[in-house]
Amino acid sequence: MNKPLNTLIVEDHQLIIDSYKMALDFVANRESDYSFKITISKSCEEAYLEIEHAANFGTVDLVFLDISLPPAKKYSILSGDDIGIKVRQLFPKAKILVITHLSDNYRLINILKCLKPNSLLLKNELDFNRLTESISNVLYGIPYYSHSVLKLVRQHISNDFNLDQIDRQVLYYLSQGNKTKDLPELVNLSLAGIERRKRKLNEIFNNDKKSDKVLIKIAKEKGFI
User: Fold this and answer.
1) CA end-to-end span of the chain
2) Which CATH topology does 5-156 take?
3) Could you name the domain of life of the organism this protein comes from (predicted)?
């Protein structure tokens, strides 16, 4: 048997933590090449401190990461996204499984782009078989995504649209009910810059009516928000 993988579970619900531990035990019994040394963090602060400790005295090989977690504002860690970025910075070879209840496309695309997780699973699509399959795949270098995530990825591959992060932010905040005049407070652009972005987005999506409602509807259909 190889050296146990240093495994960090970042999750604040004990039942879910227990299910991950059971899945790891199952995989360890089935895959003789692997065993796991497990550490639990139930908040961003605990996870941040554990990662810092590992950077000085050890390593992190495998991470189970929830996104919606109690923040650690004194460390500028607001959610699991920031923990994932920290892991990627300090342990670039670590394998990250993001398991989340989040379902809006904007957040999921950001997770895929920023964290580049080896697996992205939605909790409402998860069962024990899928969980153990995702762990095994990731260990052998094979990405594993929930059905909805795969569908979203395929949508973006098939859509011939070049939208950057600011375009997505404009669409997202409009979809949340914000007015165009309020967007400069949310997006790092002037009002004139936002208006130009909206004109470009209307052209990209062939929105002849130039209506925000229609623009958001098309963007949702295309999987951008």
Assistant:
1) 45
2) Rossmann fold (3.40.50)
3) Bacteria
